[in-house]
Amino acid sequence: MNYSTIDRFILYNEEKYKIVQEIKENKRIAALRNEIYDELEAVLSEEHFELFNKFADLMIDEHTNEINSFFKAGIKVGARFVSECMFDWTE
Asked: Which of 8, 49, 50, 90: disulfide with 44, CB 3.0–4.6 Å?
């Protein structure tokens, strides 16, 4: 699969994951998420829990795709701004 430069930055930039993990609010949310996950695992049947996991995985995939799309769009707009600042297109 051929990846664009932006895709490579998104997929292989471990530094951004460290920054996100260091945010206090994310730590609080992750702890709460894990607590709720454990509660669900205890009360759901094996079949329902498996279905829940599939649903959660799809939600994560959807959210990741949205965030990556927003990031790519932002980079492209930024590149257009730089291009416009460097060159006077009105001439």
From this structure: 49
The whole-angstrom distance between residue 49's C-alpha and the CA centroid of its chain comes to 24
Q: How much is the pTM?
A: 0.63
From the number of C-beta atoms within 10 Å of its C-beta (0-12, 13-18, 19+), residue 50 rates as exposed
Other CB atoms within 10 Å distance of the CB of residue 64: 11
Please compute, for residue 57, the number of CA atoms within 13 A of its CA located in the half-sphere on the CB side.
6
Rounded to whole angstroms, the Cα distance separating 91 from 89 reads 6
Length of the chain: 91
